[in-house]
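Example record used in the benchmark description.
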Amino acid sequence: MKKYTLFFAISGLLLALMVSTPSVAQEKEAVLEVIESAYVQGFQNLGGREMMERGFHPTFVMVLNRGGQLSDLPLARMIEIVEQRLANPDYTHIPVEAKILDVDVTGKAAMVKLELYREGRKLFTDYLGLYKFEDGWKIFNKLYHQH
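Model output (C-alpha cells):
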C-alpha cells in the first residue's frame, strides 16, 4: 500500500509541476513573439518606440564590430534612429523579413539566431540574447554578421 501511496504522491507532484511550469515549446513560442514584435516589426520594420520598449530590456546593447573595432549601440539610440527615419519624409522603408534559424531556451535564458532579408537578399545573421523576467521575455543583447 505504501508503494502505491508514494507513486500517487510523486505522480501528483509531477502533474502539478507540468501544469504550472510552461513547457520549453511554450517558452520558445513566447520568445519568438518578442523577437517578431519588438525586433523585427518594432525595430527593423520601424514599428516604433512602444513595440520596442515592450520587448527590449532597458539595458539592451547591440555590439557592433566595424573593422575589428567594437562599439555599442544602446536601446535609446536604436529608438532614436527609428524615430528619425519615421519623421523623415524622404526616407523610403523597404520591409525586412526574418528567417528564424534556431531558438535555444534553458530556464530563463534564451538565444535566437535569425537571418534578415530585404527583397530576397540576405543582409544579416543576428544573434539575440533574451532573459525572462516577471513581465516576460526581454531582448538584452545583439551581435551580428553583415553579409
